[in-house]
UniProtKB/TrEMBL annotation:
<keyword id="KW-0808">Transferase</keyword>
<comment type="similarity">
    <text>Belongs to the protein kinase superfamily. Tyr protein kinase family.</text>
</comment>
<dbReference type="InterPro" id="IPR017441">
    <property type="entry name" value="Protein_kinase_ATP_BS"/>
</dbReference>
<dbReference type="InterPro" id="IPR035849">
    <property type="entry name" value="Fes/Fps/Fer_SH2"/>
</dbReference>
<keyword id="KW-0829">Tyrosine-protein kinase</keyword>
<keyword id="KW-0418">Kinase</keyword>
<dbReference type="InterPro" id="IPR050198">
    <property type="entry name" value="Non-receptor_tyrosine_kinases"/>
</dbReference>
<keyword id="KW-0067">ATP-binding</keyword>
<dbReference type="InterPro" id="IPR020635">
    <property type="entry name" value="Tyr_kinase_cat_dom"/>
</dbReference>
<dbReference type="InterPro" id="IPR036860">
    <property type="entry name" value="SH2_dom_sf"/>
</dbReference>
<dbReference type="GO" id="GO:0004715">
    <property type="term" value="F:non-membrane spanning protein tyrosine kinase activity"/>
</dbReference>
<dbReference type="InterPro" id="IPR001245">
    <property type="entry name" value="Ser-Thr/Tyr_kinase_cat_dom"/>
</dbReference>
<feature type="domain" description="Protein kinase">
    <location>
        <begin position="159"/>
        <end position="414"/>
    </location>
</feature>
<protein>
    <recommendedName>
        <fullName>Tyrosine-protein kinase</fullName>
        <ecNumber>2.7.10.2</ecNumber>
    </recommendedName>
</protein>
<dbReference type="InterPro" id="IPR000980">
    <property type="entry name" value="SH2"/>
</dbReference>
<keyword id="KW-0597">Phosphoprotein</keyword>
<dbReference type="Pfam" id="PF00017">
    <property type="entry name" value="SH2"/>
</dbReference>
Amino acid sequence: MDPFEMYITQADLLPPIPIPRRKKRLKQLQLELELELERDGVSVSETERSLVDQEWFHGVLPREEVVRLLRADGDYLVRETTRNHARQLVLSVCWGQHKHFIVQTTPEGHYRFEGAAFPSVAELIAWQRASGVPVTARSGALLRRAVPRETWELNNDHVQLLDKIGRGNFGDVYKARLKTTGQEVAVKTCRVALPEEQKRTFLQEGRILKQYQHPNIVRLIGIAVQKQPIMIVMELVSGGSLLTFLRTRASNLSSRSLLAMCRDAAGGMRYLESKNCIHRDLAARNCLVGDDNIVKISDFGMSREEEEYIVSGGMKQIPIKWTAPEALNFGKYTSLCDVWSYGVLMWEIFSKGDTPYAGMSNSRAREKIDNGFRMPAPEGCSEDVYALMLRCWEYEPDKRPHFHQIYTIIDTIYNR
C-alpha cells in the first residue's frame, strides 16, 4: 500500500446514509458557492480547468514533501498516487496529524468524498473549503488554507526535451530547454514503469539539492512532478562528466590545474559536510566540469542528510572500490567515509581518469585494502598531494582529516 493511504480507513471511503435534509443543505451551499465565485469575477466554468492549473495540485510529489508542506491545521493540497496500478487523486490535510483521503469517483464520472459530487475536482475542493463541512465525518478535517506549489515545482509541459546525453539508474538524461525562460538545462527522467518506491528514491536527489547553493555543487532548478514522467531539472554544466573530461581532455593540463580541480571538489564536500550530508557515491563519474574547468559535485541519489547512516538492507549497487572499509564491513556511513572516497577521487584526477585498483576484482581490492594495501601515487603526483591521499585512506575513520582541513591543505599547496 502506498504510504499516502496509511491513514485511510474503510469507514472513510463508505458513503453516508442518505439524509434528505442534509442533501438539501448541501445543494444550497453549492448554489451559494457558485454565486460567491461569480461575485468574485470567476465563472463556475473556470473551476473546471485542468488540475495542472490549480495551485494546490502538486502532481506526484512524494509523501515526505507533503508532510513537510502541511504545517497548520486546515492546510491542504491534492496530489496524484498509484494504487494497484491505477491512478488516484489524494487530498492531504493537516488536522491534528496528516490525513490523506482518496478522491472518490461516482458512476457518473463526478468527484466526491462523503458529501456532494461535482463534475470536476476543482469544484469539489472549492465547495469543500467554502462549505465548512469536514472531508469525512469521522476525521473532522476542514480545509482552510491551500498550500501552493513551491517555486521549484515545475510544470512538465514547460520542459522541452532536446538531445539525450546520458543514462542514469532510473532513466535517460537529456539536454532540454525551459519554455518559460529559454534556458538550456539538464534533465534526469524517471521511467514510468518503475515501482513507486524507486520513484521516491529518484526524487530524493531533488529534495536534497533544492536546499543547497554552492558554486561546487550542481544547482537544482526544479522538479517536474505534475505528471509522468517525473523529472529532475538541473543546471546544464558545459563540460559534462569529470571522468570523461579527464580521459579525453586532461592530457595537457598542468599539475596545478589538476590540483585546482581537487580544491573545487573539496570545497563542495566541505559545504556538504557542514550540512550533515553524506554523499556516499563520490567519484569522478559523479562530478561535472563547468566553465574554466570548475568541478561541481553531482549525483546525490545515494545521499543521506544525517551525521551517521547505517545500511541495514544489504550492500547492493555499492561502488566497492570507492567505499570506506567501515561502510563495507559494517554498513556505517559518516562524512569520513566520503573523505575516503575523496582520496580515490584525487587519485582519479591525478591519474587523468585511470581505473582505481586496475586489474583487481572488487573482492580482491577489498581484501588487499583490509590487509594494508594502498594504491601507489599516480605519475607526476607530488609527495605532499600523495601524502594527503594516504591520510584520506587511513583505515580508522577518526584518523582521517575532515573536509575543512582537506580544503585548507590543498589551498596551501595550490598557492605556494
